[in-house]
Amino acid sequence: MSLKVQEERLLLEVERWEQTFFEHDPTDFEMMYQKWLNVSLDQLGTEKRSKVLDTIDNFLFHLHAMIQNSRFHEEARERILDQAKVFDGEIEDIQDIRQLSIEKLNFMAKQQMAKQRLLSLGQGGVSGMGGIVLLGIDLPAMIAINMRAIQLIALSYGYDVKRPSEMMIALKVFHVASLPKDLQGGAWDALWAEVQTADYDEWFYTGNEEIADISWIQQPLRQLVKVMVIMLLRKKLIQGVPLIGMAFGATMNYQFSRQVTEVAQRFYQKRLLLERN
């Protein structure tokens, strides 16, 4: 099988994934919840709502920047480069990784995905112990783990998130992946419209810098529900350990991380394949 045929088959696979993954008919409960949320947020007023969204955007942007400038990220970046050099000794920079075959890139990305999912599982289990401090840091920790997962997946496919445009694209991939299921398809299409625009530049970002929107606020609200469930379950001890609460926290965080990493991998797979065609 030629390389071209393999790439075409993978592109068809990604397109089939798009058709099934984003297909979702909201239930009556989801529609009622969405309506209630919109009414509640409308009561804040335009000015207060804008301030809330700006605060969330600033938090996400600075968290993303802090992660990618950390020593751990630099070490991970070097490990990805070293692994790529095993496949091709002429690779010198992240962008050169795109020269590798799609099978090798998928192999590298899946390794990073597995590590981050395992980390998310462990972090969720620790939060599930029900301590106030642990529950308080669960949401920022979960966001940080999954942001880092997207960064590592992007690097594995040869996209350097230290470039301003790539950093914003990675943030918007996180936004798509963390939206409610029935809203992900529209956000996915909007992201592709931005990436494929004629004036897209890898260095200078000229698009809309707003990340969070009213719909995304549902993610922190779902987190509050998870915290309340864990608080109820922490009293159910097995040999003195809240195993049910730990299992619940680990499962919830793992499922979220699985969704984020899956969306991120499919995005960068498709992007690379379209650039090669």
Can you describe what's shown?
The chain has helices at 3-21, 28-42, 46-68, 71-87, 102-127, 132-136, 138-156, 164-178, 181-195, 218-233, 243-276. It is an all-alpha fold and 277 residues long. The protein has one domain. It is globular. 29% of the residues are buried. The model has no long low-confidence stretch (mean pLDDT 84).
| Tally of domains | 1
Mean pLDDT over the residues: 84
Straight-line N-to-C gap = 17 Å
As a whole number of angstroms, the C-alpha radius of gyration is 20 Å
Largest sheet: none
Order of helices and strands: HHHHHHHHHHH
Proportion of residues in helical segments: over 70%
Tertiary shape: globular
Number of strands: 0
Uncertain spans: none
Structural class of the helix and strand makeup? mainly alpha
Number of helices: 11
Roughly what fraction of the amino acids lie in strands?
Answer: under 5%
Secondary structure layout plus pairing:
Layout: H1 3-21, H2 28-42, H3 46-68, H4 71-87, H5 102-127, H6 132-136, H7 138-156, H8 164-178, H9 181-195, H10 218-233, H11 243-276
Helix pairs in contact: 1-11, 3-7, 4-7, 5-7, 5-11, 7-8, 7-11, 8-9, 8-11, 10-11
Structure, briefly:
The protein is an all-alpha fold. The protein contains eleven helices and no strands.
What brief labels describe this structure?
11 helices; 0% strand; 277 residues; mainly alpha
